[in-house]
Amino acid sequence: MDDRLSGVVLDIVDEGVVCVNAGGLVTHFNRKAKEITGIVLKGGRSHPAGSIQPGDVVLIVDNMLGDDDGGMTPDILECIGVKDPELRLGDVVLAAGFYRAGGGKALYRRCGRNAAPYTLSLSGSIAGLDVVLTMDRCEKRLTVSVDGTEYYLRYLHSVAHLVVVDGQSREVKFYQEKGYSTRREALRPLLEGAAFQSKNLGTTEFSIIGRDFFEVFEPCELTRRMDRLLTGESGITLDEDLYINQRLVSCSILPVLESGQVQGAVLKFTDLSEMHQLLQQRNDLITKIERANLALESRTTRVPITAFPNFSGSSPAIQRVKYLAFKAAQSQSNIIITGESGTGKSQLAQEIHRLCRPGGPFVEVNCGSIPRDLFESELFGYTGGAFTGALPGGKPGYFEQANGGTIFLDEIGEIPMSTQVKLLYAIQNKRFYRVGATKPTDVDVRILSATNQDLWKAVQKGHFREDLYYRIHVFHLHIPPLRERISDLYLLSRSLTEDICSQYGTAPKKLSGAAVEKLLRYDWPGNIRELRNVVERAVAVSETSIIGEEDIELSHPGSPLWSIQGRQVPGGSMKAQLEYAEEQALRRALMLAEGDKRRAMEMLEMKKSSFYARLQYYQIEDGNYKMSSGPGDSKILESERGFRPE
User: Which DSSP helix (H) or strand (E) runs through 27?
Assistant: First the structure.
């Protein structure tokens, strides 16, 4: 491959690539490397070479005085009229003043870095120009606006942004770009009289080929590693975060070998300060894959890709749920949705309603929150004077409110036996009697129900009517827990992040790769409801538009998940696995004993003090530990089974 063709190939690579020979001279420097180092600049703006002259208007946004700005100190700002005895290194500085103008008044604002708000701005008029200086910690962006034209600079940790307006023509004669280090154009040298180079005037791509690598890049850990590799003192560097001319990059340094001898090296790097762009590229790629999966599934199952816009997930398990839900929506059968608490039963019910009765009302009834003696009047309403305290004109119940639409009976297993017979009558006949009424009320209602209990066990115990069970159990949809469809987590977390940001009116935020990895390692006992709570907190506490791993707080530490015989189970250290098994044994014993702690202790052959100590340690509180049997029993017991070493 000749040099011209190799240059074309390198220029289409989406990473910075620099090749050097054994003597350290640059032989290839691709376009992406020039963009990252600021040798090539995007955009149509330009300016010639020059320097700052007395009377020029200097506009500065420095988010950490003295760091990555060429060694600025407070006294140097006196050259633009800023004299502040309280200004300290590390402060945020926004300033606009005349350069060496002899007493000209400056626009100025400063703030301690730790006390700085998310957005710090300074606006005003200087030399007839409307200027706005802004530091945005959320977007990690410094902006200088001159008469409405914006010049911005992104940063990762710290940087100083500089724009200079000619004192005579009032035209911008210099604007800072990310190549300030490669061009040796840091803030302090320029304020002390150093010259700056031209931009986008044909001389921007100043010659790199043939120059010494160790002159192009400032001395740093990366240059030291390159030197050691070329001299044979050390080996390769793979995907490490290092600095190139003050910019953090993920880089690899690989040797070029011939007959076992190092004849040169290749440096590959990606700019980590452009995290927003990298994150967007990753999100776009994942979105394309998800859309392809959804499109494929919609073709094979014949479910429209737009059928469930608010029920996220593309895993095989959730695609099966969507397929069955779509079929159920097309029928008139009664539907029951089962699944653990927080899996999205209510959301799926709303999606089914939208498909089958989009123009009618959707009435959701939480049966677990209705007092037992009010069930009948709440469901079916009452006539005036039906009982003490009844409204004179009566009151319609949930069934009447849902007429022409859908009624969703969530936690249907909580309905008392005395009301179940009347519910059965209403389901069978699409009519009911208000409390105190002598004439029936006819309704046209689609009935959906949901539960996280085992209703068949309740039937066997006499707590739920068998005829009602079969009446509502015509079309069964089971939503698997999040831990069994962990591949949906990215799609869910992204959707939740967008919804929460929109709901609270905050700027859009995205999850970093490390944050997603932390979410993937968790076992999600609270399912999607818990995921939403975690994401909502992360959106609130994140100080930038990128949610980091440190912003993710989980309810309990959780354990890494291992795949054993097709199931995901906690892995990690031996202690973590043993504790998981012990906790599951306690919960299983309580389930078998139906909450009777004495019986559970006897089954486990534990002493009372040890038993209660372990309950407290694992924060196992009193709850509904009813055992399940009959249809679905094996699935529930399987979900409770702990890890067993193979």
Answer: strand 26-29
